[in-house]
Amino acid sequence: MIPPPIVQSQYMPPQYPATTQPRFVEKPTEVEEKQQELEADLQFLLDAQAEGLIQGLEGGNVDDRSSTGSTTPTVHGTRSPAPRRMRPPRRRQPGLRSARKGIYSSIIALANLKNGELQNVHAEVHEHDATLGQIEAWEKKRQGLHEASRNVDSEEETIRVQRLKQEADALQVEINRVELSLTEMKTRHRKLVSQAAAMENSVQARIASYTESLRLLENDIQKFLRRSPDGLHARPLAASSAEVKASVWQLPPQRRNLDLAKAYWNEQREQALQHAEDTKFEKSALIEGAGMWREAVTEVTDFEKQLRTEMSALRPSSPNSQSAWDDPPSTSISDNEHADRMQHILEKIDNVAESLHAKLQKAEERNWKLLQAALGAELDALSRGKQILASALSAAGSKSPETGGHELKKANSSEEIDALDKSFSASRAVNDDDEEPPPELLFSKAHDVDTE
Prior knowledge:
Keywords: Coiled coil
Oligomer: single chain
Coiled coil: 154-227, 346-373
Number of strands: 0
Radius of gyration: 41 Å
Strand content: under 5%
Shape: rod-shaped
Number of helices: 10
Region (Disordered): 1-32, 57-98, 313-336, 395-452
């Protein structure tokens, strides 16, 4: 069974009705391009895994070599930076074991990529916080200057100025009425008027200082509003925030204000935080899925080792027939013991299939398309193997009164075992030293991702 492409598991945003606002085409980031490349490699390895399983069950030869020509499985070759995208050369189809190892390596690579993307998102959040902090400081400063300007008229100096003017007017009347004290009163009058003028000049100077500070602040704000955010730090807004974006950066600069800019940057910050949460969830899902796949591969590999041993004992001794793994046994076994061993193999297949099915159900509950495809392929291979063994057991268990018929059925049972033997030997033709993935592939990278 060919697994569905993993591209189907990507999240597709909801389609909204087209609006009259212009649409912006965002260039994919370097992280998104790397993720697309890893997903393409995963799809290639899944196809190779399915084809390897099918060829193994049909008794075909499987060359367990990587697409790069080396015996070490790799997800993708080393890519050097180029000024323009080149069409990748057609890669050689890897073997089943290389595909399995490559699937695990690709999952770990995706987890590491998500970890780097998470660090970039945290940096963006930090920069957004700094920008919002500057905006709030400007707002507080502007509010304080407005309040100080409004309080000038109600301060004690202003009231005293008015009081001194009233007193000067009263004294002027007194001068007219009292000619004898005119000189003294005029002197006092001049003094009072001078004090009032000095205080008034002080008040006007303070008002002018506040006005100039407010003008400089408004200039800084206008410069900030005229400069649109660059694409490096601004994330594309969702459809629900399209009006906020249009009201700020698509409006003329003279119509922009801090309230709209603050709403825009708050939206940017919320989206960055949400993206960080989504990235954490994807990272944990990839790590957990990698562990589940490693357990499944270990179970299947252990079962195949036991199956080698059992089938080597079940094959009849013949100089022209040898097992794909071991030499034939020196002594023959009875029909009853032959049937019991084959029944025991079928029970082991059921146990492994039940364990893989439980993992498949868990992957379906969590909507892990990648793991569903890989586990489904393994279950299909076990099902085909079980059918072959069941057919051989049925042929061996039937009885015939004639000796020739008994020998014929025994030969048919042996042919079924030979077919299953060749099937598994073709898909598992590897050295004994290469039975398990390297420890650094199974543990080191996953441990690094967990600890970061």
